[in-house]
Amino acid sequence: MKDIVLEVKGLTKSYGSFRAVDNISFSIPRGKIIGFLGPNGAGKTTTIHMLLGLLESTAGDVYYFGKKFNEHRNECLQKINFTSAYNKLQGRITVLENLYIFSELYNIENRKKKIDELSDYLEIHDLHNQPFWDLSAGQKTRVNIVKSLLNDPEILLMDEPTASLDPDIADKTISLIESLRKDRHISILFTSHNMEEVTRLCDNVIFLQKGKIFAEDTPANLVKQITESRMILSFRENREVVESYLRQHEIKHSFKPHNTVEILLDEQLIPKILFGLSQEGIWISGIEIVKPKLEDIFLLIARNQVTA
Amino acid sequence: MKSVVLQEYYITKASMETVADIFWLPLMSVVAFGFVNQYYISVSATGQTHSLTATYMFWEFMRAVQYTTSLGIMWNIWSHNLTNMFITPLSMKEYFGTKLLTSTCVALIGITLNSIVTKLIFNFDLLTALGLTNIFLYAVNLALFGWIIGIVLIGIIFKHGTKVQALTWGVIYLFQPLTASLFPVKILPDFIQKISYMLPPTYVFEAIRANLVDPTPRWDMFSKGLMLNFIYLVVATIIFQILYQQSRKSGQFVKNDQQ
């Protein structure tokens, strides 16, 4: 219990007869990054809003550091923070003025030193005197992250922090989150629609579907649920022979332009298929094997093509 | 608390429309009404010279308190910063308590500025005409009522979102005739007079007109206004709590930040 930073028990949110979040339970150990995934409308953001006390739950309890959130709200909020691509700071006032306000709200001692330290860490010193709304999306994200670290949170809730960022800035943001965990040992609940980011960052992943937890495991174990890989073969000629061979062996496939065929199969069968096609006199000019990724699991869940 | 003061200061100095609404428009209105009043002075001998100027200055004081109280939340909604504010240890109680102080300070700066101008242009010295004690008594009741209206409006905005944001600057004008701010209550029809006497500012504006003839503090009017204010404060707090809870339950509180 001591190392559990956040524990959620039976959390539910109903709007009339519709259950946006349906009796979910999970916990986040100290220093771990948990991916919170699911298609749009699955209940991720609704859950995060309940975890922050912004939305009243219909049932269930939230515990931070072993304490019931409803009963120890201020104490808990002093040690948690939140950043989202969709929340902004006051637009007309400068970055530094915004950060001063939040350092006061969190009652930070030696606030100038803290703001300077974090500004160095996220390289936003040169933005201090700019109005927040003059910043680019990437700069706003970095300033938001500085805001979210002002109170040295023990747990950080991040709702799609890289949404609307270009790949370069998104990559830098992910590197930053990696270093946050390494340097500060912060626990993070992380939502994103970018499965590569989730695979790179998260120790564990919780998949939500229609308000319920559909799957919960490490990214590697989740990917193992898909046994089939994709093999893309290019060949010189004799498409009919290739097609006939694949049909004969009941192998799922689809032909692409320029004498290319995409084959879905168990990885262990690859040598056998390649050998078989060669025996049929097919000259294979290119082979690409695409292993299943977290994104494939995401798509299967979103399309209801996999069972829990 | 310091954080709310800081935010108030930073936003006000960065927002021309706020400066205009709080200082410039009231100043211009006071000047205009001052001229109207001068006309009345020349054609009547009621003894209540400058009553229109004085009551209008205090009307603007109350309006500034209400406007500043409500607008603080609107700035956070418009900037998508509302949820950031309320996921900190800041409680609603602390927020509104501080808002009462900051909005009263802003309104005091406004009325001070207006009184300097009326002294220079119309030779009407508010402090000399009414005395510091009376001004303090008026300010207490008007600030409380402006704050009460502000709290209820914030509750309505939390519940219904920015589609009703015009109430923030519009609803106060409903009380301008009802509280008999610019003329004696007796001018109003009988049935409206009954409503007027249920509103705390009415006692303030009546006291101002009385004190321009006799500066003896009207404790009777002050206490009636204060008593009504406390009743309304309790009612407003309950209404706000209900609306706030409903907005947290329906999800509108968070949606306000995403609109």
Task: Describe the overall structure.
- The complex is a heterodimer of chains A (308) and B (259).
- Chain A has 3 domains: 1-79 and 153-226, 3-Layer(aba) Sandwich (Rossmann fold); 87-152, no CATH class; 227-291, Reverse transcriptase/Diguanylate cyclase domain (Alpha-Beta Plaits), CATH 3.30.70.270.
- In chain A, 35% of the residues lie in helices and 30% in strands.
- Chain A is built from 11 helices and 14 strands.
- The two termini of chain A are 27 Å apart.
- By secondary structure, chain B is mostly helical.
- Chain B has one domain (2-255).
- Helix content of chain B is 79%, strand content 0%.
- Chain B contains 13 helices and no strands.
- The two termini of chain B are 27 Å apart.
- The A-B interface holds A 15, 46, 49, 52-56, 73-74, 77-78, 80-82, 86-94, 97, 100-102, 104-107, 131-132, 147 and B 2-3, 6-7, 10-11, 14-15, 75-76, 78-81, 83-91, 245, 248-251, 253-254, 257-258.
User: How many strands in all of chain A?
Assistant: 14
* Chain pair sharing the greatest interface: A-B, 35 and 32 residues
| Percent of residues in β-strands of chain A | 25-35%
Q: Percent of residues of chain B in beta strands?
A: under 5%
- What is the H-and-E element order of chain B? HHHHHHHHHHHHH
List keywords for this structure.
heterodimer; A: 308 residues; alpha/beta; Rossmann fold; Alpha-Beta Plaits; 3 domains; four-stranded antiparallel sheet; 35% helix; 30% strand; B: 259 residues; mainly alpha; 79% helix; globular
